[in-house]
Amino acid sequence: MASTSDFKNGLCIEFNNGLYTIVEFQHVKPGKGPAFVRTKLKNLSTGKVIPNTFTAGAKVTTARVERRQYQYIYKDDMGYNFMNTETFEQISLQEDLINAPSLLKEGQEVEILFHADTETPLSCDLPPFVVLEVTYTEPGEKGNTATNALKDCEVETGAHIRIPLFIGIGEKIKIDTRTSTYSERVK
Asked: Long-range pairs for 1-10 at CB < 8 Å and ≥24 separation?
């Protein structure tokens, strides 16, 4: 059991007969009335984010979860296959458990969240940024824009990203996996 004073981003709790992780929380002490904690909770089975308010000091049940390092191996008709980097056992996950499946590259390290009591995988998180090579893009024309212009490109995993005009085929770019957007060019 934990109280609202133990809340932190990423804490996994049991709420409404499901597992939720705290995405965002804010302690509010109004001038009149009792204090409360305003939260945004993400359902780990559906991915839906819901707002909820807890009274200050309320007790919640925390769920035991473990984060384990895995390496992405390949994709087949059963799903995405990963190998544990310590025990070398392999598991297969469905696409809806992965936060950015289009940016997965073979051999990439990921972190898989497991429910410790039932040993079921809850989610698969890529690192915040990945470096991928641009495999196709149209040439950018200089001088015909007044502000920062973007063009479409395809990276080595097959994902489509919007990039600045000055980036060409064969260059490596850093991509933010949380938003699937261009971050910077890698030299």
From this structure: 1/59, 1/60, 1/61, 1/62, 2/59, 2/60, 2/61, 2/62, 3/57, 3/58, 3/59, 3/60, 4/37, 4/54, 4/55, 4/56, 4/57, 4/58, 4/60, 5/56, 5/57, 6/62, 7/37, 7/39
How do the domains of the chain map onto residue ranges? 2-62, 65-125, 129-186
Which CATH code is given to the segment(s) 129-186?
A: 2.40.50.140
C-alpha 112/C-alpha 179 separation (Å) is 19
User: pLDDT tens-digit profile of 102-137?
Assistant: 999 999 999 998 988 888 898 898 999 999 999 999
Q: What is the pTM of this model?
A: 0.78
Convert the pLDDT of each residue in 69-109 to its tens digit.
999 999 999 899 999 999 999 999 998 888 889 999 999 99
According to CATH, the topology of domain 65-125 is: OB fold (Dihydrolipoamide Acetyltransferase, E2P) (2.40.50)
Whole-number pLDDT of residue 51 = 96
CATH class as words, domain 2-62: mainly beta
